[in-house]
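Section 4.2 – Deliverable D4.2 (structural model, holo form)

The reporting period included a commitment to supply a predicted holo structure for the target in complex with 2-amino-3-ketobutyric acid. Inputs used:
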Amino acid sequence: MERILVIGSSGQIGSELILTLRKMYGNENVIGTGRKTAPSQAVLESGPFEFFDAVNKNDLYDACRKYDINIIINMAAILSGNGEKNPMLAWDVNMNGLLNVLEIAREMKMKQVLVPSSIAVFGPGTPLDRAPQETVLKPTTMYGLTKVAGELLGDYYVKKYGLDVRGLRYPGIISHETLPGGGTTDYAVAVYFEAVKNKKYDCFVKEDTRLPMMYMPDCIKATIDLMQADFSKLKHHCDFNVGAMSFSVKEIADSIKKRIPEFEITYNPDFRQAIADSWPNDVDDTAARMEWGWKPSFDLEAMTDDMLNAITEKHKKGII
Ligand code: AKB
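Output (structure tokens):
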């Protein structure tokens, strides 16, 4: 029986992933955790939740023993933008938290660990078009650096200890339930909320900035598909490129304008422009497609329809 601990279940991906996992494995079998951010009502009301910091190994151990955990999903991370404001915190949360997860999973002989990575592993020297699975990984951010080290560390635990560790390089994730916090790709979420609320958005990267992106339903599907893949068929483990779509800010703005003609966008690039410029436009995800059958469903137009409908409903109800 699966007993899953979702670290970071108050975050953008964790808050939606945990609800899907609870439907699949039973509410009581999927335990949420958070460092500081309170969980959503839906997470709080549907199953167990504990507040602790995974950087504290004893607290993590206690939770794993209390709930008899055999799978850990480590969604906690300080993202690229916030990581540049506080690099030491990014190192602490992203590396020491991960090391605790891997060590406890090894000691408790757990079934599986999921350690997400990101397109932030790329940097100067990575081809900008269709970044290959195997390529130069020289990120310029502390977040990216911890993600490269995390991929290598996960692979090390697979080879050295036979622990089942898996991970995928998330692109920018777009969603309407929980806002992302402190990433470079956050503009691709904010633009939809501002379009509905204020009919205008001042973007912190230039209009021709093009990055790999994915809509949340595809992100949840990719995560669960990878978790369920046959371990013996995986040639890669912690570093799968996963692609879905790639568009410039102007293309998102045009897609919104088709539905909200009065929407206006302005550009005021800040320090995150350099981060965005160091990441590729899109990725080659052949390995994920071949090894575990990855296939995305949403393109930009389908996502824009869905995002604007959901956010408009929330706005009408006064939730945002
Ligand atoms: C960020 O922008 O830092 C994240 C990511 C791409 O991992 N959304």
